[in-house]
Amino acid sequence: MDASTGIQRNSPLILRAIKFFTGPLTYKNLLSWGLLLFAILFIKGCLIDQYTVPTGSMEPAIHGDPRFFRGDRVLVNKWLYGPRIPFTTCRLWNWAQPKRWDIVVFRRVSKSGPPILIKRVAGLPGEKVHIQDGALYVNGQRIDPPPELWDNLHYTTRLYPGDEQVKRRFLYLAQTSDTFTMLNPPDAATQQLYDDRERCRDRVKGIDIAALSGEEVDRLCEGVSPEGLRVLREYSEFELPALFYGVRPEPQYSEIFSDGYYFLLGDNSAESVDGRIWGWVPENYILGRAFAIWWPWNRRCDFTGFSQTWWGISVLYGIPLALIFFESYRFFRERRKNTPTE
Question: Containing domain of residue 209, as a range?
Fold first, then answer.
């Protein structure tokens, strides 16, 4: 029996499996599935969608982790700023403009990094922005965030690797046995770093370090010398990119000249790759405003009060229930039609 014969024999089974999920292969059924697909694309592209936050740039407001049971999943209102053509940056019309301190989801403007990012609006079109002493200054005046953000927002003029980031890098160092040419091997702290690396090599053998939680990283780094980690931190700081926009005083780095451009920053300023590096973001790149965390269940929260309004409840619960009702009704109707009568 050749391969083609095997495919022919299995094709009825494959067709039955497809029909089990889609129903009969008829024009009417195809049309209903097409309408359902259009509705899903319209809802996700123009009304509401959910996004995974891959990094910790918005800590502590939003926990970043691509793993389903650890990272936050945010719901985004895509209708607020105006509907867009799905999969494009073309907005059909504008309902409203982003406001300062809105949390927005947008397409990246740089050539590297995740294709979709989430940050907070800090600067608006036509403003001159500057970061100084941990605060944001707009047109020379200090702009304080809302009271609920006072303890979270402290903007920096350079990037600093966090403790978890340094420890995670140490684990990579132990796993790969890399060396750093810029470090001085006879230095006592550098030698301590390399000694800790050799001692921890067996701990990380065969481990996916990127998948480790913060608690697991701390446990694997128990006993590592603070002096060695200090050397690694200083080396990591040297590798981080310099910050220009909103930091340097030159007009090209401080003044948002063009209409429709925004300055977006992460709440976890010391570790956030954001507008301070790649500059202003055009409004048509902004997909919508994040209004809630829906997962994990114990971290669900509402940023804007959207879920407390009647229309918010209709979008969150009415649309999914309507789709379920429609598909259930169609399924049972087809079953009744195909059931023989006595």
Answer: 163-239
